[in-house]
Structures are given as C-alpha cells and as structure tokens.
Write a structure and sequence with these properties.
Length: 61
C-alpha cells in the first residue's frame, strides 16, 4: 500500500483515518470497527464489502 494513498483515504462512513493491516490485506477503521479489503492492490471502499471486526481484533491492532 502506497503511503501517499493511505494518507488520503478515509472511511466512507465516518471519514476517520484508516490503518493498513498488511497481514490481512485490509484497511481498518477502528471507529466503525470495519475492515475494508484490498484486492489486487486496490482498496475496496464499499461499506457493504467491509468486514465487521470483533472487539478482540480491535484490541490486537
């Protein structure tokens, strides 16, 4: 994930900054507890494609 791209991407729901999770190939919104997938190096920034994170996953990040 390019650092410049990560600087400008925000959560489409709450506009919070996102954290890159390299191992899971996801962009994480801690505020909404959502993980947006990255497919073929392209972030999929659709709420309906995001995965809900468990409280345990949030604590580990």
């Amino acid at each position: 994930m390019h650092a410049k791209l990560l600087e400008i991407l925000v959560c489409p729901l709450c506009k919070s900054t996102l954290t890159y999770h390299k191992a899971g190939q996801e962009l994480i919104c801690k505020a909404d507890r959502l993980a947006y997938p990255i497919q073929d190096d392209i972030p999929v920034m659709l709420a309906e494609e995001a995965r809900k994170l468990t409280p345990e996953e949030i604590e580990k990040m």
